[in-house]
Amino acid sequence: MMQTDEERHEVRLQLRLGSKERVMVLSEARVRQLRGFAHAVWREPFSRRTWSELGYFVMSAAVGAVGFVFIVVTLGAGIGLSVTFFGLAILAASVRGARGIGRLQRTIARNLLGEDLEEPPPFTSRPGFLGWLQSTLRDRVGWRAIAYSALKVPLAIFGVWFALSVWIGAFFGLTYPVFGAGTGQLKGFGVVRTLFPPGYLSVTSSGFIHSLFIFLTGVLLLGLAPWTMRAVVWLDRRLLHLLLGQDPITARMRSHEHARAQTVDASVATLRRIERDLHDGTQAQLVALAMRLGQAKEKLSAPGEVDLDEVRRLVNDAHGGAKEAIVELRDLARGIHPPVLDTGLEGALSTLAARSAIPTELSVTLSDRPTPAIEAIAYFCVAELLANVALHAEASRASVGCAQHGQWLRVVVRDDGRGGAQPALLGTSSSGLRGLADRVHGVDGTLDIKSPPGGPTIVTVDLPLHA
Amino acid sequence: MSDSIRVAIAEDSAILRDGLVQLLADRGFEVTDAVSDPTALHEAVDRDRPDVVVVDIRMPPTFTDEGLRAAIELRRRHPGLGILLFSQYIETRYAAQLLADDAAGIGYLLKDRVADVSDFVEALVRVASGGTALDPEVVTQLVGASRKTDSLAGLSARERDVLALMAEGRSNAAIATGLVISEGAVEKHVANIFTKLDLPVSQSDHRRVLAVLRFLDS
């Protein structure tokens, strides 16, 4: 044990600072770490990422310069002539062109930086030239691209000064002994000129040592170059995401559109279900009823002896059918809009809880009345969830809580069943919980299911009080 | 009865199916099969060779137009089999598809029509014997659809009435009773219609319907 302890690789550094003497002991792990770091720094100028970033900077700055000139010219001309119709058209062309420049910049960034930039939805124009003009001038994607182009220019100028100059300085430094010897100084501009002004080497003015020092300056700059460029590209990445990436406003609009589409789908599905129920149930019942009564009528008016037993049987069947049709129609009407909801959610939920096949506890604390649409969604959620509890949960008890939290309504349905419920299993059809979830999302609400295997299952539905 | 008409029924609603079976048996038909989906219908027809089938348009699995497709398929496989489509709705498109080739032995009725038992039975007998039975609703829709073309503009109101009843598949005698006019008057109207619409006169009832529908469809 002692041996291994002695064999541990340690680096002892004795430093003498003024009169103090310090001893630094670096552990093996620490040494490995430092060596790794140095290795990384040394390797960085030759890494793929470094060269990609340099390539990106040069390409996107070139595109940015061309784009900036285009935008300045068209925007200037457009605004200058904007009192005329022609000026507006030039302005629109400017926005449209900026969109194209933005797409090009995104493509370059995606390919060289590997940035995950989502393409915006393609430009859609209203019909007609005026429609095109209006859509173009309102195109957020285009205006954001103009903003990017405008900010890209100072960023690129800063990048040339702060990062590209370092690369170029490194090149001149490293090649000095071959090409530059005799000029007496390191060619440089930007930050390089600031760090190493002419005459920074006061030691010597010529000869081998002088060349060596400039060469070493080049090595130093080569080590620095990836990092200054990375800083500039980092700023550019932020700008890309801010102005050429997904637009938060557009994204929110799209999410709203999606929610609305889901709501429309859900209501179409509901209508289809009602039609099916009417077709298969009540309509069929009534046709059968009319058929029996028609038969009875013909038997009664037929010449000769009337078979009263037969007629009695037909009327009896018709009577039974009529009563069944009434029940079916009532159930169906309740499924569309329970009349009890008109008196408020509390009464409607207590009817549901009382009708539930599993003993169900109910607590409702509401100080404001939600809008009818919210009441209906809350009601049908509870109805569907209690039906699921009865069908799948193998529960002995269930509870329904309905409480107001500020401007929100929270409905919680829990059961002590076996759990393991999954949204997809709870309602595979649009008429099930799936359809309800769509309706809940349609009013910006949320539906959350917690159902670990073994239970209990807790489903929480949050709805805005007013929608 | 050895010469009773043999009927197969395809209807997915149990109440209606049982009601129809009982009604038709009561009226002296021989109900060979009562099934609830198209596959079973094909098997039943292949096996029992009924004279006529009563087919619900909406049946499993998708409850859209299975019955109609089954009818077109049956028509192809068993020429001469009478087919009475039976539906809660009248869709002009379905009627047009069904009557595309030949209106002989084809019927298309609203389910409501079973309430008037005698009319329904009459229509079924007509279809079984190669005639045509179209619901007045179908005729109204088809006539309405063709009105756009103004092709019936030349007909008088009475002639249109006669045309509508003709399209339902009724004989001259039945039209005369329906409109409370003499059979001779009906014959005159029919002749006028054919002349005005430039259609060749034919003796057979269903050919008349076919001609009328061909015209209405154009």
Q: How many domains comprise the coordinates of chain A?
A: 4
Helix/strand-derived category of chain A reads: alpha+beta
Low-confidence residue ranges of chain B: none
Report the mean per-residue pLDDT of chain A as an integer. 85
Query: What is the succession of H and E elements of chain B?
Result: EHEHEHEHEHEHHHHH
Beginning-to-end CA distance, first to last residue of chain A = 75 Å
pLDDT averaged over residues of chain B: 82
* CATH classification, class level of the largest domain in chain B: Alpha Beta
Given as residue ranges, the uncertain stretches of chain A (5+ residues, pLDDT < 50) are 1-7, 426-430
- Give helix and strand order of chain A, one letter per element, not per position: HEEHHHHHHHHHHEHEEHHEE
**Helicity range of chain B:** 40-55%
Number of helices of chain B: 10
Number of strands of chain B: 6
CATH topology of the largest domain in chain B: Rossmann fold
Number of domains of chain B: 2
What class, by secondary structure content of chain B? alpha/beta
3D structure, described in words:
By secondary structure, chain A is of the alpha+beta class. In chain A, 66% of the residues lie in helices and 10% in strands. In chain A, a hairpin with a 2-residue loop joins strand 4 (398-405) and strand 5. In chain A, helix 3 (48-80) packs antiparallel against helix 4 (85-113), helix 3 crosses helix 6 and helix 12 (372-393) runs antiparallel to helix 14 (433-442). With 218 residues, chain B is of the alpha/beta class. Chain B folds into 2 domains: 6-134, 3-Layer(aba) Sandwich (Rossmann fold), CATH 3.40.50.2300; 139-217, Response regulator (Rossmann fold), CATH 3.40.50. In chain B, helix 6 (136-147) packs across helix 7, helix 7 (157-168) packs across helix 9 and helix 8 (172-179) crosses helix 9 (183-197). Chain B is globular, with a radius of gyration of 17 Å. Chain B starts with 5 loop residues before the first strand and ends with a helix. The relative contact order of chain B is 0.10. Chains A and B meet through helix 9 of A and helix 1 of B.
